[in-house]
Design brief:
The protein has 867 residues and is mostly beta strands. 5% of the residues lie in helices and 45% in strands. Strands 2, 4, 5, 7, 8 and 9 form a six-stranded mixed sheet that branches. A five-stranded mixed sheet has the order 11-19-16-13-14, with no helix packed on it. Strands 22, 23, 25, 26 and 27 form a five-stranded antiparallel sheet that branches.
Length: 867
């Protein structure tokens, strides 16, 4: 530990005094009071501390402020004292407090703490009391210590030694509690325990000791924290380092001894030698030989270099059949020594290093032709003696082509005289296998052997193909057939280049519809080199006609020819078309259905037609006639004709029917045809029903009203009713009854015709006739009967009506209507025509007599009553 100065001369400069004052300002001391010699003046140090230590070089500006204070009546001066020497003096009027601080008036106050700032500090004040000047001093001091900074004071910057010489270096440092240590390449010494550290290496090694060495000086001492006097920290946290470069030198070796050639070949030579004899390997600056450098020179500028660690050594890559000179040089850590030479020597002949050239290669089905040219002269490595030709095929392209009769591989040797070695040679490989890739390798040869071969790949041509095998045809639909076939297995001819698929319909082409193809376009299926024997090939032919026999041909082709195979198949039936339909009414209960379907629209053999019949009934349907029905139409000649006809019976008269037809073939059915409509003809209506008559007398005439209902089966629209008034009388001359038509009335207008089913109205009655319709009855009023004289109808007569309903089909059955009460003219005797009886005049006479008798009887009774 450095000694601390205890006193300083009083004649310290003002700058030094200011520095000390600054430290005191930072340090401070506890408040201390002291009476002066004769008065009440008191001095105190504010914020003081009894003892501190600061590191040399600490910035003064970082220290906290200490103040010296005096309390007196009249202060004249205050000062700080370091080791009994005044360092700061400040006068105030009146002076009360003197901070220990640096001002612009004291320039030296700026900067860092120095070793000279250490010491014991106190504060002294002066004041006046009466005529006397007195002073007072703080009784306790402040002890300020300064830790000396770490410095390396003695060490060289560099050093050079010979390999094997000792190394001795020393590092000297100064500072408070300093320790030193050395580090060198890949080695760190133990930390030092003093200010001096020495490093000694008895024998240096260039590989180990060459490099940079570093001395480190550091201190672990603690100092007061400038801004916090109650805390401590390392005085000098960063170590100080200084480096020295140590260079270890090594001398290169001398010449190798006894260099000789032990073996010489075409491209290499083996050399042997002894190590250098001087300088001795163990001398200062010498290291063992680490390697040998061999350089072989040939030609004007070419060379081969090699680096080995011992003798003997073989040098490769020498030129064949050439003059070579080799030299050897030893090498150690100090460098490469002088060269020792073998002198010129000749390398031997070698196998050619260059490849011959293969030109004009051509292949046929069983042979390969080519031309061989020699390699360049510099690559022959001697004199050419011939060529070696090897060829082989793995038979992968066409395994079946590799038969015992052909050669899949082989070797041929071609001799060449040295005088003709520059002449190209034409050669042929024969008896090869078809359609396979061969690798042909040609090597140039000399007395030393054959070199690397030049390769070419050649594919032999195909032979004439055989037919594809196992051709099958699978019908997919009415327009498509899938064909499958196989490559021959084994395939002895090679490969196909393509397949051509042809489809052709036979002579029966009746289902050709204008869209399908009788002869679809040919399909070309390319064959690839990967098709193996027995491999299945698939192709689909489309656009074919339905229900048609086709012949399919597959032609396999390559560059040597073609081969054909064929098979047949019949396409399935397709979807037929609906026929063209026509309807004709034949009668009230029958219609004729006619339709046409061309063969091309059938898409296959027909099996039937189905007729769908539906009535649209507005008139005359009843349970005995057809209303809806499906009718199958079959015939043995369905496929032989194009026009068809059938008559549908049992239909309702005067009824609208709707008909459509669906075509059926062997596979499916068509959509229904367009719907056609036809009305059956009207039939002859049945008898009217519920006929009756009513006779009334309107003098001088008789009025008869006839009622009837329409027929229950009108078989059409009733267009008219014919009402005939018939007279039956006895013809006395002929002696028999006769019938005559008195009147005929046709009711064809405004008569409401009704019946068991709804009917539509027809026309009106003729002039002067009244027609009514009541309770579903048809009424015809006959205004009067003809007036006949007695002699007109001999023997009396009888009247009745014949009523007939008519449709568009004609008049129906006649119904006779007789009046219920009887009805005769004078002279008639009965209700029925043709019956016998009294004549009319007799009947009239009887009536007159009866009436006259009644009148006479009435008069008599009246007269008697009067009496």
């Amino acid at each position: 530990m450095p000694s601390w100065p205890m006193a300083m001369p009083w004649r310290t400069s003002a700058a030094a005094a200011a520095v000390v004052a600054a430290i005191l300002l930072a340090v401070g001391a506890p408040c201390v009071r002291s009476e002066d010699q004769g008065g009440a003046g008191q001095v105190s140090i504010i914020n003081g501390n009894a003892s501190v230590r600061y590191a040399e070089g600490t910035a003064r500006s970082s220290l906290s402020v200490a103040q010296c204070q005096i309390t007196a009546g009249s202060v004249t001066d205050l000062m700080w004292i370091q080791n009994g020497m005044k360092v700061v003096n400040k006068v105030t009027v009146p002076p009360t407090i003197l901070p220990l601080a640096w001002t612009a008036a004291v320039p030296a106050a700026a900067g860092n703490i120095m070793l000279s700032d250490a010491g014991i500090y106190n504060c002294q004040g002066f004041y006046t009391e009466g005529p006397f000047v007195k002073n007072a001093t703080a009784p306790e001091h402040i002890n300020i210590r300064v830790a000396e900074a770490v410095r390396i004071t003695s060490m060289a910057a560099s050093m050079t030694l010979l390999h094997g010489q000792p190394l001795d270096i020393t590092c000297v440092a100064s500072g408070y509690q300093v320790n030193t240590s050395w580090t060198r390449p890949s080695v760190t010494t133990a930390p030092g325990s003093s200010s001096t550290s020495r490093l000694v290496i008895p024998a240096t090694d260039v590989a180990r000791d060459d490099g940079l060495y570093t001395c480190t000086a550091e201190s672990d001492a603690l100092c007061t924290v400038p801004s916090n006097r109650a805390a401590q920290q390392k005085c000098f946290p960063s170590p100080v380092r200084q480096a020295i470069t140590v260079t270890i030198q090594v001398n290169p070796p001398g010449r190798v001894q006894a260099l000789k050639r032990t073996q010489v070949a075409s491209t290499h030579a083996t050399l042997a030698w002894d190590p250098p004899s001087s300088p001795p390997p163990a001398g200062p600056g010498q290291t063992p030989v680490t390697s040998y450098h061999i350089v072989c020179v040939f030609g004007t500028s070419s060379n081969v270099t090699s680096r080995v660690v011992s003798s003997p050594a073989t040098v490769s890559n020498l030129p064949i059949f050439s003059t070579v000179n080799c030299s050897v040089r030893a090498e150690n850590a100090g460098g490469i020594g002088p060269a020792e030479s073998t002198g010129n020597f000749q390398t031997r002949q070698g196998a050619p290093s260059g490849k011959p050239t293969i030109e004009k290669v051509s292949a046929m089905s069983a042979s390969i032709d080519f031309t061989i040219k020699p390699p360049a002269l510099a690559q022959r490595n001697g004199v050419l003696t011939g060529y070696k030709v090897t060829y082989s095929s793995n038979c992968a392209a066409c395994p079946g082509c590799c038969q015992p009769s052909c050669k899949a591989s082989g070797t041929k040797n071609i001799s060449v005289h040295h005088s003709t070695q520059e002449t190209p040679i034409d050669h042929q490989l024969d008896t090869l296998c078809n359609a396979n890739q061969y690798t042909v390798s040609v090597s140039a040869c000399s007395q030393a052997g054959c070199g690397v071969g030049a390769d070419t790949h050649v594919v032999t041509a195909n032979g004439k193909p055989t037919a594809p095998e196992n051709l099958t045809a699978t019908v997919l639909s009415s327009s498509a057939v899938r064909l499958q076939w196989q490559n021959p297995s084994p395939s002895t001819f090679g490969l196909y280049s393509k397949f051509t698929v042809t489809a052709s319909a036979t002579a029966d082409r009746k289902y050709f519809n204008g869209v399908c193809q009788v002869n679809p376009p040919n399909l070309v299926v390319p064959a690839t080199q990967t098709l193996s024997p027995g491999q299945v090939i698939t192709s689909t032919v489309s656009q074919m006609c339905p229900s048609t026999v086709y012949v399919f041909t597959v032609v396999g082709e390559n560059n040597a020819g073609t081969a054909v195979t064929s098979t047949g198949a019949t396409t399935t039936a397709g979807k037929p078309s609906a026929p063209q339909l026509n309807l004709t009414a034949l009668s009230a209960t029958t219609i004729r259905v006619e339709w046409t379907l061309l063969t091309r629209d059938r898409a296959g053999p027909l099996t039937k037609f189905m007729l769908h019949l539906v009535s649209v009934c507005t008139c005359c349907c009843h349970g005995d006639c057809a209303s809806e029905e499906n009718i199958d139409y079959t015939a043995t000649d369905l496929d032989q004709v194009n026009k068809y006809s059938t008559v549908l019976t049992g239909l309702c008269p005067s009824t609208e029917y709707e008909v459509d037809i669906t075509t059926y073939n062997s596979a499916t059915q068509s959509l229904p045809s367009d719907h056609k409509h036809v009305d059956t003809l009207a039939g002859l209506p049945d008898n009217i029903v519920d006929a009756s008559c009513n006779v009334t007398s309107v003098n001088p005439h008789l009025i008869v009203v006839v009622h009837w209902r329409p027929p229950k089966t009108p078989k059409g629209i009733i267009s008219a009713y014919t009402v005939k008034l018939q007279q039956t009388f006895f013809d006395e001359q002929a002696g028999k009854n006769r019938t005559s038509t008195i009147s005929t009335e046709v009711y064809d207008k405004d008569i409401q015709v009704t019946g068991t089913e709804s009917q539509k109205p027809v026309g009106a009655v003729t002039a002067n006739e009244e027609v009514t319709s009541t309770n579903n009855n048809t009424v015809a009023k006959i205004p009067e009967l003809p007036d006949h004289s007695t002699d007109e109808i001999a023997g009396g007569s009888q009247y009745y009506y014949e009523i007939t309903a008519a449709t568009a089909g004609g008049q129906g059955a006649t119904t006779i209507v007789r009046c219920a009460s009887g009805w005769t003219k004078p002279g008639s005797t009965g209700d029925n025509p043709g019956d016998g009886g009294l004549p009319g005049y007799v009947v009239a006479l009887i009536v007159i007599l009866v009436l006259a008798g009644l009148i006479a009887l009435a008069g008599l009774l009246f007269h008697r009553m009067k009496l």
